What we know:
The chain has 63 residues and is α+β, with helices and mostly antiparallel strands. Helix content is 14%, strand content 13%. The protein has one helix at residues 11-19, and strands spanning 31-32, 39-40, 51-52, 55-56. The longest helix is centred in the N-terminal third of the chain and has 9 residues, at 11-19.
Amino acid sequence: MAAVPKRRTPQGRRDRRRANSYPTAKLPAQVRCEECGGLVRPYYVCPNCGYYRGRQVLQVVED
């Protein structure tokens, strides 16, 4: 006879195991800023102009 699991595997344990097996979509390392066109990491405030998702969230000091 074949081995039978004694307990049901929880969804979390199953999903954590599967997370390392399947290829996932990778985010690009850098994207273009919508305001200034500079390269910036995704989901980060642009260090050049201080904009995030079309709003200015940081005051950038010009040298």
